[in-house]
Amino acid sequence: ARVALRVGRRLGFSAEETETVSWLVLHHLRFSNTAFKRDINDPKTVTGLADVYSLGLTLHALLCLQKPFSECEDEHQILTRAAQGHQTPLRRIAPRVPADLETIVSKALEVLPQDRYTSAAAFADDLDCWLHGRPITARPAGLVERARKYVKREPVPTLTVLVLVLSVVLLATINRTAKANARARAGQLAM
After folding, report:
1. How far apart are CA 121 and CA 177, in angstroms?
2. Least confident residue range of 7-11, 52-56, 109-113
3. CA 171: distance to chain centroid?
4. If we measure between CA atoms, which residue out of 130, 182, 150, 157 comes closest to residue 11?
5. For residues 141 and 149, is the Cβ–Cβ distance under 8 A?
6. pLDDT score recorded for residue 13
7. CA atoms of 132 and 138, how far apart (whole Å)
8. Residue 70 in 3-state DSSP?
9. pLDDT at position 30, please?
10. Which of 17, 18, 101, 104 sees the fewest Cβ atoms within 10 Å?
11. What pLDDT sits at residue 104?
12. How many angstroms separate the CA atoms of 128 and 183, rounded?
């Protein structure tokens, strides 16, 4: 629930929306029932992966502030839609959700249990990476994106290195120009 409050604040939710978020997190066991029924065909995966799926459903509901599969009329329709992976894309419902966060939620809601996070702890670790501006594991970041996130996360060391590199380049340019000028003067004197 604490992480939910931090995410809600970071996304600019109002006090009322944040309260809804807290309620959704505290009552996510209701979603566990759907997840359990969805994964019942493979009893070995029910506990861990159903928990990841239910947490994904809870986070999805938290971010878009509506019940998952709200367009379904009964539990049978919900289970059918969940089994087929017909979850409405999060950013279509809530455009203010960052792409990386949508990717994390999507991975938790994968149709095949082996495509989801291996545990609730792995899911939480990826959310923590997102919260702290580090690359997420749900979608490996390229070199440019990792560099951008590092600069945003660590501006002082980045600025220090940049100033040092620019100073070295500037000093090398000044030195080269001075040597070229000295050679030119020596050539003029020799004439």
Report:
1. 58
2. 7-11
3. 41
4. 130
5. yes
6. 77
7. 15
8. coil
9. 54
10. 17
11. 93
12. 59
